[in-house]
Structure formats: C-alpha cells, structure tokens
Amino acid sequence: MLKEMALQIPALQRLRDSRDNLKTAFDQQVERVGELEAQLATLRSANASPFYAYFANFDAIETMHRHEVHGLQPTPGFQTNWLGVLVDPKINPFLSATAGQLEPAPFPANWHADIAEWAAALQAVDNSPRDSFTMIELGCGWGCWMNNMGSAARRTGRKVHVIGVEGDEGHILFAHEALARNGFQPDEYTIHRGIAAATAGVALFPKQEHAGHSWGLEPVFGATSTQQAQAAADGSHDILPMIPLAEAVGQHDRIDLLHIDIQGGEADLVAGCLPLIEEKVAYMVIGTHSKHIEAQLFDLMCGTGWRMEMERPAFYDVKSSRPLLMVDGVQGWRNPSLMNA
Description:
11 helices, eight-stranded mixed beta sheet, Rossmann fold, single chain, alpha/beta, three-stranded mixed beta sheet, 15 strands
C-alpha cells in the first residue's frame, strides 16, 4: 500500500517510468547484439557464403519469403524464377541449360543478384502506395528489375509502370520480349535507348557481336566530335543520346524505386540529380562498382538525411598485386520525406 501511495508522487512516478524505458531500451539492444552475434557466427562457419555479409534494418529473408511465389509450373523453353517471372535463357550463355526449369529462391544468391539486392528492391515495393508502383531501372539490360519488381507489385494488386534506360540494342530487344512475355501491356512500360546520365549530351557505347554475351560494357560520356567521328568510322561504338534522369522520370510525381547499375557512374549520377531525386524518388537500390563509389554515396546520402536500409559491400580478390573487384556492392536508401521513417 505504501508503494502504491509513493507512486502517486509525480517525481517518483517519473523515475519509475524512466527506469522502465531504460530497461526496455537495454533489452532491445541485448536482442540486437544477439542477432548480430548469430549472423557473425554464420559468416564464420566453414561453408558460409560471403553473400550473407549484408546488414539491413528490416528482415530481408522474411521479405523475400513473403513475395516468393509457390505452386509454379515449368514453362518449356524458359526458366521460371522464384517470383514467377519467365526468363529466356538466350539472354546469357550460361543459362542455356535452365530452359524448362523452376529456379529456387536465391538464398543467398542466384545468377543475377543476392539477398541484399533482391530484398532491398522488394522493400521498395512493400513501401509504395497501396494502389500503384512506378520504378526506373537505369542500365536495364533485359529488364530484370522491371520484370521482377513489376511482377511482385502487380501480384499485390498495384497498378504498375516500369521504365528502363539501356544502351545496347540487343538488350533492349530482350527487354521488350521479356516484358510482353510476362504480361506487361504496352502502356505499363517505357524503354529509352540511350545512356543514363545526369544531363543531356552524346555518349559512345561499345557494340557487341552477340547480345547477352557481355553485361559490363562501359560508355564514353560526353563524346567529342572527334570521338564520334572515329566511332562512326571504325564501327566500334554506337553513338547514343545521354538520357537525363529527368527525362526518364517524365511527368511522374513519384518514383517508388530507382535502381541504378551503370558500370561505375552511380555516384556521379546521384550527385548530379540530387534535387530531383530528393523530390521524386522514394527508394534507391544502387549497385556499387568500387569502394570509392561506396564512400562517395555514404558521404553524399548521409548528408541529406536519407536512411540507409541495406548495405552489402563490394567483394575484392586481394591475392594479386592489386585488389580486383569480384562482385559489385549493394546499397538501399530510403527517402524519409516520401516514405515513413
């Protein structure tokens, strides 16, 4: 009874509330430390994949399980992936044996991406408006993220519009075929042929004899008239427009996902388009092609108040005289002004 009377005193009541709040915060930190220790133990195990070396502020694996499509049936001539997307093996020579097969969920990775990238992109779907999903894929290739995230959003009942920018003529044909094959109507997608950039201009893009045999081609930005003439003379490069991000955004008020994988130009594009990105883009998933680019993005985005939700560093082979990039990194960023913090 005396304890109950004492707690009626405001100062004592505040002390008890403060103690309870501290205990709750402490328990949460203990739980988080336990989760991190478990993750580190997994990473240190003899058979652990480096693709588990990501850190996220949401449950990446749960997110992927929730979107995984069950009960799929194989389609002759095509690989059917874990999100129900049909993939033509012709887009890459090493997929030739996968025709007619069902691909399992990518834990921790598949031929295209890992947990970090799949989950971060799906996080953008989950946090888009309930009735719509609009995304842009810069360096879209065959339209991987357009097809996969568009399909995932469509399964939730959202109306979708997916936008891609790509320089390779053969890859653009792959993207058109894949989108039609996976049920996207012509008014649900837009594909620009050109090189994604912060500003307009002219770029050179290497030609390849067989589409799908190379996915890491790097453009020459801001090509001079001399460079353009040389490219035209020797036929080594296509002369293409640089497509500003503003042109890709067009009249859309909101871009729920901006996926950027442009072979080393990621940080420069984000820096050059930051006001537009802050105004229109709710979520970014960025493929990072060096530690330098990762650091640039850290400095740039942390200064804006954006919240990092996924980070998996680029992997390097350090056995030779110079570090050699083996796997691109992944960063996922949330815009708190367009999404709940």
